[in-house]
Amino acid sequence: LCTAAADAGQPQLPALIVEAPESLSGLARRVQNFDRSRLAGIMTLTGLRTAGAPIRVILLAADSNKAEDTPPWVAGFAEPTRNLIVLFPERIGSYPYDSLEEVLHHEVSHVLTSRAAGGGRIPRWFDEGLASAAESNWGLDDRSRFTWEAVVGGRVPIAELEGLFKEGR
Question: In angstroms, rounded to a whole number, what is the distance separating the alpha carbons of residues 93 and 114?
């Protein structure tokens, strides 16, 4: 009974279906074996109690057609309406993409945020901010960059913030 009561308070975590070419099969196994309990934080941030449909995660090599059609600074992206995440593992490893797991959590956050909003429009700045909060704890590098931008960059009106996301990296 105690276990059932404790489980009742926990959100249902999203199921991930991982697909990859043979050359990335080792990484696919790693993704499949990630500690999914960390996704509970994303569920809490979004306010969801049930995750919904499984999320398809596709790992693609740098020489794939999709990778070549995607800006080189993009390590992954989500298409929430399709329950889809695409990751480019070879692009992960330097700030702000420190690990494959962090990028996966970031992209899962986009899917779950969309579900929490019922598919409605979410301001990009809010969606990215929530995903960034979900992916990891802020380290010294993150805090330093934020402080630098706040001091040097000045204030950006919210009306202009959305447009900045269209300017690239």
Answer: 27
Please give the pLDDT value at position 1: 32
Nearest CA among 57, 46, 65 for reference residue 20: 57
Residue with tokens 């489980």: 7
CA 55 to chain centre: 12
Residues 50-80: tens digit of each pLDDT:
989 999 999 999 999 999 999 988 999 999 9
Q: Which residue shows structure tokens 């740098």?
A: 62
User: 77: helix, coil or strand?
Assistant: strand
Rounded Cα distance between 87 and 107, Å, is: 9
- Could you tell me the CA-to-CA distances from 74 to 47, 91, 144, 147 in Å, in that order? 27, 7, 22, 24
Q: What angle do CA 89, 91, 94 make, to 5 degrees?
A: 115
**Alpha-carbon dihedral sign for residues 97, 56, 39, 166:** positive
What is the pTM (predicted TM-score) of this model?
0.78
